[in-house]
Design goal:
- With about 325 residues, the chain is mainly beta.
- The chain has one domain.
- The chain has 3 helices and 14 strands.
- Strands 1-2-3-4-5-6-7-8-9-10-11-12-13-14 form a 14-stranded antiparallel β-sheet.
- Strand 11 and strand 12 form a beta hairpin.
- It starts with a helix and ends with a strand.
């Protein structure tokens, strides 16, 4: 199978490593919900829990966008610290979608036109099976193609995977090596689990991932959907009706992030509805230095996070839901 076996194993290991970093809050903004995935009851926001509410919200945003790594992804969050070595799983998925034909016998040059190509990889133990449908017979990933994979106790280098992931609704335009170009696809995870060193992460739900660039320097990425759920280390993160947008200039490192979602977190003990009033912006692998996000809980109680700089934030708390700030708190990013 030429080079596809090594590429496939490497991709899965990157995916697994990134998923194992996903712990924390949750989100909303796509209309409807995935069957079996729903937001938990909203929490009442008070001065006592406002820092935790704001922290869970930012942790969810930070984790889903890979801090400041560019495209959206589930990654370890290290608030207040440079995050240059994080692995961005959504970016990894984007790259693997682009390379989909290489997962099949003989690589893209061996894909038979108009045929559904099978995957049947031999893991170190267990198996991965699936198929790639080259709908337009062009031997590359393009509009209308689909991909599905199912892991059955598949182990590579101490990483064990189970469950299914499918990619559909693929839309491509242009050439990424000669911008402008764009790529969009939908991911569906069915109890897809990754286990490493006794720790297991389970992901289920759906989301639409998109990436585009007009010049190969400025990138726009998004992750939106009805519902997705991640469980890791006893903590659960649920995003329902979520819409997260990010831009990045790869020459300067300048980025902006917006999240509109309903975030449910076991650490938070419930949910909040999150609205980005002003996009979070920053430079490189550091925390945002400007922006504003409002988190609304039960009874219209809320906390608004105003970014003062890349070190400190201001929290305006409305404890009775009357729309008036009752208490103002100050915190460092490292305290959230």
């Amino acid at each position: 199978m030429s080079n596809s076996n090594g590429v496939f194993k490497t991709s899965l290991l990157l995916l697994a490593t990134g998923l194992l970093g996903a712990c924390g809050g949750g989100g909303g903004g796509g209309g409807g919900s995935t069957v079996g995935i729903a937001a938990s009851d909203p929490v009442t926001v008070t001065a006592a829990n406002a820092t935790n509410v704001a922290g869970s919200t930012f942790a969810a945003t930070d984790g889903l966008t890979g801090g400041t790594e560019g495209a959206l992804g589930f990654v370890p969050a290290a608030l207040g610290q440079a995050q240059s070595v994080q692995i961005n799983v959504i970016e990894t998925l984007i790259e693997q979608v682009k390379k989909a034909p290489d997962l099949f016998p003989g690589g893209s040059s061996g894909v038979t036109p108009a045929a559904v190509q099978p995957i049947n990889e031999n893991c170190e133990s267990g198996t991965i099976s699936g198929s790639f449908n080259d709908a337009d017979n062009d031997l590359t990933l393009s509009t209308g193609d689909t991909l599905s994979m199912t892991a059955n106790m598949c182990t590579f280098g101490g990483v064990t995977m189970n469950g299914s992931i499918s990619l559909s609704n693929v839309i491509t335009s242009g050439d990424e090596f000669a911008p402008p170009y764009s790529l969009q696809f939908t991911i569906q995870a069915t109890d897809f689990s990754v286990s490493v060193g006794g720790e297991t992460v389970v992901m289920r739900g759906d989301g639409t991932i998109a990436e585009s660039s007009s010049d190969g320097i400025n990138f726009t990425s998004s992750f939106s959907g009805n519902g997705i759920e991640i469980t890791a280390a006893g903590e659960s993160l649920t995003l329902t009706d979520y819409d997260i947008q990010e831009t990045e200039n790869q020459a300067t490192g300048a980025y902006s992030i917006s999240i509109n979602a309903t975030i449910s977190s076991s650490g938070l003990g419930g949910s909040v509805t999150v609205t980005t009033d002003v996009a979070l912006t920053g430079i490189g692998a550091f925390d945002p230095d400007s922006g504003q996000i409002t988190c609304v809980g039960a009874g219209n109680t809320s906390v608004t996070l105003l970014v003062l700089d890349s070190i400190d934030v201001q929290l305006e708390v409305d404890q009775n839901g009357d729309g008036i700030t009752d208490q103002t708190l100050f915190a460092a990013w490292t305290e959230l």
